[in-house]
Structure formats: C-alpha cells, structure tokens
C-alpha cells in the first residue's frame, strides 16, 4: 500500500456494527466545515452509483436462500470492486482538489471481515486493494470500539429484526472482526487512533477532534499561507 502527496486529507472510520461510525463521520464533516475546510462524507460499500449497486448485491445476496449467499472470496472481490469505483471516481478526485474525504468504513473493514473473520487472510485483501485501488490508505483511520452490550442495544433500536447479510452473522464472526480490527490498529499506531465509542456522541466527537487536531492545524496553516 502506498503513501502519496495529497491536497485534501482522507479520514476513515472503522469498527464493528453499531459502533457509531456514521454519526461520527457526519459530525466530523460538519466540524471540518466550521473550521473552513471543505469536507465530503461518504461510505463503503457505496459512495458512487456503481458501488451502491454492488452494496445491494452484498447486503441482500440475490440467492441467499438457495446458496447461503456469497462465499468469502466472491464477497472480497465485490467489496474490492465497489471500493475501486469509489476511489477512482470520488475519493481520489476530491482529495486531489483539496477536499477532505470522511469515509464510513474503508479497506480495513475488508481486512477485518473478509480477511479476518472470513478467513481469507490479510495478504489476499491487500493484494486486491493494491490492484483495485492502487493501495490507497487513509491519512488517519479512526477505530471506534464499543462495549458489546451497548452495541446490542443500539442495533436492536436501529435494525430490529432487519439486520443485513453480514450484520446478521453470529457473535463468533463479529468477535473475530473486533479482534482483527484491534490487531490492525496495534500494528500501525501512527495510522490509527483508537477511540472508545461507548460514550455519548458529543463526548466521542471531542476525542475524534483531539486525534485530528494536528492535521486540522496543518491544513489551516497552509490555507493561511496560501
Ligand atoms: P455498514 O452499512 O457500514 O454497516 P453498519 O452501519 O452496521 O456498521 O456496512 C455494511 C456491512 O458491510 C457491515 O456488516 C460491514 C460489512 N463490510 C464488510 O464486510 N467488508 C467491507 O469491506 C465493508 C466496507 C463492509
């Protein structure tokens, strides 16, 4: 995976189901705008028309009743294809133009879900990402960790009995996802900020802003000099 020069910044939120990523992504994008920074919030799988169509296929597999849905390999390929379209058509052009991208999930979700819990391994996921998205990495990945009991309550309120094909997998699968996310963050302390997402949204948002403070100050300094 590669590092490259960018005008805008790229921030991804990661974590298991119901960790509060979508709320925090929206709050961050609003706060950035208040700081005079142009920001665009997007999500994966999705973010472009093509990737949103692939999202439908992934979360509601057409023949789930007959075949049990996608296998780990086909699932990984579909996520990588959706991401490739998203990166090429939306993320790279935005950051090249100076916009900050705030993304609700990115490649580390594939590393944790398909690579970790799905058992196909990190090397395969990184290879697909190198090919599909030329290895693009966020400038910072914010891993939101949440207490499993809190998450169960949040998901019951949000989804009722309607969880999607991946969210509905058992506690064993989601336990492996959480363990892999934690291992990825531990292996790359400069690339990750790990934040406890169990508190109320405003308190979590303050921690997110604290983690991003140096990057925001740097962007404002650049704007002031321009
Ligand atoms: P999302 O809508 O973000 O779910 P939630 O709001 O519950 O966190 O993501 C949809 C599902 O797709 C979620 O179960 C995680 C899964 N997923 C993967 O398995 N691999 C991936 O690469 C991505 C981006 C998501």
Structure report:
With 226 residues, the protein is an alpha/beta fold. The chain has one domain: Rossmann fold. 58% of the residues lie in helices and 12% in strands. The protein has a 5-stranded parallel beta sheet with strand order 2-3-1-4-5, with helices on both faces. Helix 1 packs parallel to helix 9 (201-225). The two termini are 31 Å apart. Bound molecules: thymidine-5'-diphosphate (TYD). Thymidine-5'-diphosphate binds at residues 17, 21-22, 44-45, 59, 79, 104-105, 109-110, 113-114, 166-167.
Radius of gyration computed on alpha carbons: 17 Å
* Main sheet specs: 5 strands, parallel
**Low-pLDDT regions:** none
Overall body shape: globular
CATH topology grouping: Rossmann fold
Name the features.
globular, Rossmann fold, binds thymidine-5'-diphosphate, alpha/beta, single chain, 58% helix, 9 helices, 12% strand, 5 strands, five-stranded parallel beta sheet, 226 residues
Give the arrangement of secondary structure elements.
Blueprint lengths: L9 E5 L6 H14 L4 E5 L5 H11 L4 H4 L4 H25 L3 E5 L2 H11 L4 H12 L6 E6 L2 H12 L11 H17 L4 E5 L4 H25 L1
Parallel strand pairs: 1-3, 1-4, 2-3, 4-5
Helix pairs in contact: 1-9, 2-4, 4-5, 4-6, 5-6, 5-8
The structure holds thymidine-5'-diphosphate.
């Amino acid at each position: 995976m590669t590092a490259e020069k960018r005008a805008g910044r790229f921030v991804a939120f990661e974590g298991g189901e119901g960790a509060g990523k979508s709320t925090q992504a929206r709050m961050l994008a609003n706060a950035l705008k208040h700081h005079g920074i142009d920001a665009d919030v997007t999500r994966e799988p999705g973010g472009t028309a093509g990737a949103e169509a692939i999202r439908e296929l992934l979360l509601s597999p057409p023949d789930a009743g007959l075949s049990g849905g996608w296998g780990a390999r086909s699932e990984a390929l579909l996520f990588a294809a959706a991401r490739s379209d998203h990166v090429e058509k939306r993320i790279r052009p935005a950051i090249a133009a100076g916009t900050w991208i705030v993304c609700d999930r990115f490649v580390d979700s594939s590393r944790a879900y398909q690579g970790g819990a799905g058992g196909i391994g990190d090397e395969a996921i990184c290879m697909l990402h190198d090919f599909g998205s030329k290895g693009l990495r966020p400038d910072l990945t914010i891993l939101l960790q949440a207490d499993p009991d809190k998450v169960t309550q949040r998901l019951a309120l949000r989804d009722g009995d309607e969880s999607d094909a991946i969210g509905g997998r058992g506690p064993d699968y989601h336990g492996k996802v959480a363990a892999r996310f934690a291992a990825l963050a531990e292996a790359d302390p400069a690339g990750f900020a790990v934040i406890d997402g169990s508190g109320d949204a405003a308190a979590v948002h303050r921690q997110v802003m604290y983690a991003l403070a140096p990057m925001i100050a740097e962007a404002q300094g650049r704007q002031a000099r321009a």
